[in-house]
Amino acid sequence: MGPRTVVADVADELARRVATGEYLPGDLMPSVRQVAEEFGMNRATAQLTLGRLESYGFVEARRGKGFTIRDVRQDGGMDVYRHLFRFSVAAPELAAEMFADIVDVERGIVLEALLGYTAAEKVLDPAGLAAAVDELEVLARREDPDRIAILAAEVSLVRTLLGVLGMSMQRAVLNSIADMVVEVPEAVTAYFAVAPDLHVLVWRALLAVWDTGSGPTEAQLALFEDLFALYHEKVLARFGELVGVLPQPAERAATA
């Protein structure tokens, strides 16, 4: 095992301890000597390991003191949150809480894009959109669907709509969310709590609405939003199952 692998593995273990609260904000990280002794590495490699943890945004170097643990939940940006979510899977309750936040933000952005484009003057080539949905269907109907490829195709579609609507900030956040999800296998699986075909059906329905040139009724919009919310509830429940969050007593009674 080369030094790069050792550095990555040990940095990930230390990051997990920060993410799960084993190491608390404001505390000093173990010193270079302590890291070297615990993980059986030389001090130069231990220094590189702590440097990688700093690159994650989890610690900051203090001259003469070593590395201090940052309050990553309060002070971290999207990239730090991405690392935090990846390492939080070892703490199921925390991971489920973070995933719920991710899904909530993602749902808001996607709904804003879909409903915004529905209400806007259509400028995208309908044939191009249909071809993109056809490609999505090909991916979804494979015997062993590549979930990451399907997610990438859907994100690309939404990103196109956001671009037309001039929502550059939402597009940047959506890109970051996509990066967060694909790094956590349980999150990818959870997004397909319902069969991949459903993803295609939603896009087909939207294309049909856009082709008519007349917007959906208020009742149809309300139904769409309700179905979207229900889908994401299933996604959250599936993620909880995958990471090992036990259902609450009321939930267990309802499913008994």
UniProtKB/TrEMBL annotation:
Q: Which domain of life is it from?
A: Bacteria
Which SMART domains does this chain map to?
HTH_GNTR
Q: What Gene3D superfamilies would the database entry show?
A: Winged helix-like DNA-binding domain superfamily/Winged helix DNA-binding domain
Enumerate the UniProt keywords alphabetically. Answer: DNA-binding, Transcription, Transcription regulation
Q: What is this protein called?
A: GntR family transcriptional regulator
Which N-terminal stretch is annotated as signal sequence?
none
Q: Where is the HTH gntR-type domain?
A: 4-72
